[in-house]
């Protein structure tokens, strides 16, 4: 009797510990193998057929449909280049070069992964519609209030994330393929 009670308690403890570990692992992003480039993070294996089980579970919980490994790459920024969380009460200057890709988009989402409502009813920018300088560099102003040039509206909620999707990018599922890749810088401007 005493042995079966100990076995029951051990089983309950193992299930609770395993469930807690799984929940914690799902909070940090979709699985292992994250690649960081400045403020941007990508998970190259997420769109591959040999995705790890934690990434598969994270995608199932979120209902996300990632780009396939040969379709491109997605980069997520939750902070600026200095590591401060993105906050719509501040203006942001997103500038430089984007990853080498046939086409890319930059969108603002809330922290739950939904597009942010805004008065302009515009949720992102595309590489084909950006104003650029003669070197191909660009400046995007992400702010609540309208700006001339490349403006990304942020809406009213304070916390947000940025997602940069590079379609037919020159990457592979191997993290080393990301070395030397260009991503835009994110600099915080004035805050209200």
Task: Note down, in words, how this protein is organized.
The chain is an alpha+beta fold and 192 residues long. 19% of the residues lie in helices and 28% in strands. It contains two helices and ten strands; from the N terminus they run αββαββββββββ. It has helices at residues 2-27, 53-62; strands spanning 35-37, 40-42, 72-77, 90-96, 103-109, 124-126, 138-143, 150-153, 161-167, 185-191. The strands form two sheets. The protein has a six-stranded antiparallel sheet with strand order 1-2-3-9-5-6, with no helix packed on it. Strands 8-7-4-10 form a four-stranded mixed sheet, with no helix packed on it. α1 crosses α2 (53-62). The protein is elongated, with a radius of gyration of 20 Å. The chain starts with a helix and ends with a strand.
Low-confidence stretches: 20-27, 55-63
Any idea of the CATH topology?
A: Jelly Rolls
Largest sheet, spatial ordering of strands? 1-2-3-9-5-6
| Cα distance spanning the termini | 66 Å
The largest pleated sheet is described as: 6 strands, antiparallel
Instruction: Report the order of strands and helices.
Output: HEEHEEEEEEEE
* Helicity level: 10-25%
Looking at CATH, the homologous superfamily is Domain of unknown function DUF1214, C-terminal domain
Radius of gyration: 20 Å
User: Can you count the beta strands?
Assistant: 10
Report the portion of residues in β strands: 25-35%
Structural class: alpha+beta
Return the domain count. Answer: 1
What is the C-level CATH assignment? Mainly Beta
Q: What form results from the Cα inertia axes?
A: elongated
Q: Total helix count? A: 2
CATH arch. level architecture: Sandwich
Average per-residue pLDDT, rounded, comes to 78
């Amino acid at each position: 009797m005493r042995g079966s009670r100990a076995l029951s308690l051990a089983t309950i403890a193992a299930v609770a510990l395993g469930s807690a570990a799984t929940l914690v692992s799902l909070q940090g992003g979709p699985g292992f193998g994250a690649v960081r480039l400045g403020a941007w993070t990508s998970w190259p294996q997420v769109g591959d057929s040999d995705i790890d089980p934690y990434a598969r579970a994270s995608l199932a919980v979120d209902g996300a449909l990632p780009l396939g490994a040969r379709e491109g790459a997605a980069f997520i920024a939750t902070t600026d280049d200095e590591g401060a969380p993105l906050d719509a009460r501040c203006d942001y200057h997103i500038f430089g070069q984007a990853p080498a890709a046939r086409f890319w988009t930059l969108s603002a989402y809330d922290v739950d992964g939904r597009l942010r409502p805004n008065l302009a009813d515009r949720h992102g920018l595309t590489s084909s519609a950006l104003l650029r300088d003669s070197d191909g560099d660009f400046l995007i102003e992400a702010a609540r209030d309208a700006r001339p040039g490349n403006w990304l509206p942020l809406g009213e909620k304070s916390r947000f994330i940025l997602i940069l999707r590079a379609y037919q990018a020159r990457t592979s599922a191997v993290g080393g393929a990301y070395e030397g890749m260009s991503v835009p810088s994110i600099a915080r401007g004035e805050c209200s």
